[in-house]
């Protein structure tokens, strides 16, 4: 037998072996949250990615206030820019720019480079806005998009008044460009002060002003995810507590949200990203709204008084934990509270009177040690006393084994934790070898959230990792084991989700994008096939009375779907040989004479998808059902989904 990454172990004949699915006796319920999405603002996932803002450093709050901006002087014009700080009157957004200019001859202005350029589309309308006032002069300015050749591809004019107001103007681009930039030209002679300089495309998700990038959200919606975990990840913790994620600072008016440095800004020396900050234009209200849009249950993760233990490892003393605990209680009220409550009213004022139906809350991200247990106990006691219906997700550390896991796993089980969050960043072979990991887990103990997993082709955090078919296929093998054990495993999500082609820090990633395009990796299509073919109940699937967990290079799981009255069988072949099987749909159900096969395959284990070239994507074909038997030839290195309706 040949398996991925292994030498020849044994040869055997596949023949026409029989696989039996018992359709009459469901084993366990599959949770609606079984397959979901984990979002973290890494790899320019939010600013420069999902959040559709095109201007970088729009409020001059980066450590270097003019980062992303350049002054332009032409044909004798003069001018200067001064960054002023009004911390005493506006502590969340203290900086603004003061432009003093004489453009009575020539031209004076500033340009913004965007996030590795700006992706501009021909015939699409763009909406410009800024907060500004004219201290001296007429306050006239011209805004302009220019392509990578510095040619104008869209412009508009506006005039700002003597008082601070938000000004808006829209215009249409005349051509498409991947690397456009944006310019503001000041006219005449004067002084203008400006802040929150912003540019958004018109084609945001659901047409929401200043919203999310449509193509990226559509890729998420197409997955039919059961949940959305947000906002991370390590940014929940921060490198130190002062840069932790604080949800209350991410709701309300955009101009009042306090920007902070992104913890991935300098994490990797080989991928240093000094211009990586969080504006929180994509904040907690938008996360909840996005969850609702794509039919996913929201799963927010909150800081539990601990900074990243891989960095500073700072902790808040237990006697000073109350503000962190109050944030958790207030978040539940924000999500579910009546409009007459303090935080429920804020949700309503933001445009969503109805509750978001929050059911889950994560306490800490990837914490470990006795200090985590101490803080978890405080959170659990207070939250359960006021909101006993909320299920709490708890960390069992950064790895699925080892000293940290071996302490947390039994300790949290003794504390009767609701859901344990296990993470796996391992090589492809590990994923194949651990498809039966949950077969012997305690059915009466805490449920499992496979919160972060991805096969690493080169090594964890290596920049050489690829989204290869070998990795995706191994994940598919592992996922059959998650679904087979749906009475224990309630949730699972690949990580990380997004990566900008020129702004990434971590590989591999589920979805890659540039400023104009996006594509799903082979791993994405594996996730999509599992999530969109989930079913509602696990069915027994055996070969010679044994579960298919890779003994002959074949992995399998089966499900029944109450809504569609379908039998769903997922089969993964990790060998280089075709595997022929007769799948018997045993039981009293009357079976249709035809079904469908959806197949994801490649003969090349190193194959990857890329912009404009989806080498690995599903194909669909009809299959005959003779009596209650389906003859299937599983292609080498393939994942196959069989669906058969009942009468």
From TrEMBL:
One GO term in the molecular function aspect is: alpha-L-arabinofuranosidase activity
Protein origin, superkingdom: Bacteria
The top EC class, named as a word, is hydrolase
Pfam families, alphabetically? Alpha-L-AF_C (PF06964), ASD1_dom (PF22848), CBM_4_9 (PF02018)
Instruction: List each copy of the Alpha-L-arabinofuranosidase C-terminal domain by range.
Output: 451-638
Q: What is its EC number?
A: 3.2.1.55
| SMART domains reported in the protein's UniProt record | Alpha-L-AF_C
Alphabetical list of InterPro entries matching this protein:
Alpha-L-AF_C, ASD1_cat, CenC_carb-bd, Galactose-bd-like_sf, GH, Glyco_hydro_b, Glycosyl_Hydrolase_51
Which biological process, per GO, is one annotated for this protein? Answer: L-arabinose metabolic process
Q: Which catalysed reactions does the entry list for this protein?
A: Hydrolysis of terminal non-reducing alpha-L-arabinofuranoside residues in alpha-L-arabinosides
Please verify whether the record's keywords include Protein biosynthesis. no
Which keywords describe this protein according to UniProt?
A: Glycoprotein, Hydrolase, Signal
Which PANTHER family does the entry link to? ALPHA-L-ARABINOFURANOSIDASE 1
Q: Which family does it belong to?
A: Belongs to the glycosyl hydrolase 51 family.
Query: What protein name does the entry list?
Result: non-reducing end alpha-L-arabinofuranosidase
The upper taxonomy is: Bacteria, Pseudomonadati, Bacteroidota, Cytophagia, Cytophagales
């Amino acid at each position: 037998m040949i398996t991925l990454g292994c030498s020849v172990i044994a040869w055997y004949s596949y023949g026409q072996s029989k696989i039996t699915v018992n359709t009459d006796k469901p084993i366990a319920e599959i949770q609606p949250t079984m397959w979901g999405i984990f979002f973290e603002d890494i790899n320019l996932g939010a600013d420069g990615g999902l959040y559709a803002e095109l201007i970088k450093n729009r409020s001059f709050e980066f450590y270097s206030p003019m980062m992303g901006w350049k002054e332009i002087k032409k044909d004798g014009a003069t001018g200067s820019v001064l960054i002023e700080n009004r911390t005493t009157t506006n502590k969340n957004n203290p900086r603004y720019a003061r432009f003093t200019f004489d453009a009575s001859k020539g031209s004076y202005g500033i340009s913004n480079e965007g996030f590795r350029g700006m992706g501009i589309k021909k015939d699409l309308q763009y909406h410009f806005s800024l907060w500004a006032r004219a201290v001296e002069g007429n306050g006239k300015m011209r805004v302009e998009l220019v392509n990578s050749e510095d040619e104008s591809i869209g412009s508009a004019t506006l005039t700002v008044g003597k008082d601070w107001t938000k000004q808006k103007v829209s215009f249409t681009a005349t051509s498409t460009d991947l690397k456009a930039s944006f310019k503001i030209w000041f006219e005449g002679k004067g002084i203008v002060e400006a802040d929150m300089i912003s540019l958004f495309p018109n084609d945001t998700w659901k047409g929401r002003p200043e919203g999310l990038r449509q193509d990226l959200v559509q890729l998420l919606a197409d997955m039919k995810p059961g949940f959305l975990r947000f906002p991370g990840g390590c940014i929940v913790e921060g490198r130190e507590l002062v840069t932790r994620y604080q949800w209350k600072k991410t709701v309300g008016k955009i101009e009042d949200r306090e920007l902070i440095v992104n913890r991935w800004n300098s994490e990797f020396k080989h991928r240093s990203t000094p211009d990586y900050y969080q504006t929180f234009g994509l904040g907690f209200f938008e996360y909840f709204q996005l969850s609702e849009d794509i039919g996913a249950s929201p799963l927010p993760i909150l800081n539990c008084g601990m900074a990243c233990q891989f960095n500073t490892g700072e902790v808040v003393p237990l006697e000073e934990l109350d503000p962190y605990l109050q944030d958790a209680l207030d978040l539940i009220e924000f999500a579910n509270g009546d409009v007459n409550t303090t935080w429920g009213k804020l949700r309503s004022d933001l445009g969503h009177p109805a509750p978001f139906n929050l059911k889950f809350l994560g306490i800490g991200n990837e914490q470990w040690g006795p200090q985590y247990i101490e803080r978890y106990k405080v959170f659990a006691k207070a939250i359960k006393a006021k909101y006993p219906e909320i299920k709490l997700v708890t960390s069992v550390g950064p790895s699925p084994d080892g000293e940290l896991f071996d302490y947390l796993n039994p300790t949290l089980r003794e504390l009767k934790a609701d859901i344990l969050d296990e993470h796996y960043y391992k090589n492809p072979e590990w994923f194949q070898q651990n498809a039966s990991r949950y077969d012997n887990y305690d059915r009466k103990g805490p449920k499992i959230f496979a919160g972060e997993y991805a096969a690493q082709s080169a090594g964890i955090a290596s920049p050489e990792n690829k989204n290869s078919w070998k990795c995706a296929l191994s994940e598919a093998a592992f996922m059959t084991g998650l679904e087979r054990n749906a009475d224990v495993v309630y949730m699972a999500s690949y990580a990380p989700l997004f990566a900008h082609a020129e702004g990434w820090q971590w590989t591999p990633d589920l979805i890659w994008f540039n400023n104009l395009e996006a594509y799903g990796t082979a791993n994405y299509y594996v996730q999509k096939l599992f999530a969109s073919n989930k079913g509602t109940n696990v069915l027994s699937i055996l070969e010679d009375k044994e579960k298919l967990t890779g003994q002959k290079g074949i992995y399998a799981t089966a499900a029944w779907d109450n809504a569609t009255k379908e039998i769903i069988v997922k089969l993964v072949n990790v060998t280089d040989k075709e595997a022929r099987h007769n799948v018997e749909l045993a039981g009293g159900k009357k079976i249709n004479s035809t079904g469908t096969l959806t197949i994801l395959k490649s003969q090349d284990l190193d194959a990857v998808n890329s912009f404009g070239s989806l080498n690995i994507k599903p194909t669909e074909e009809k299959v005959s059902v003779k009596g209650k038997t389906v003859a299937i030839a599983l292609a080498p290195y393939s994942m196959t989904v069989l669906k058969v309706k009942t009468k």
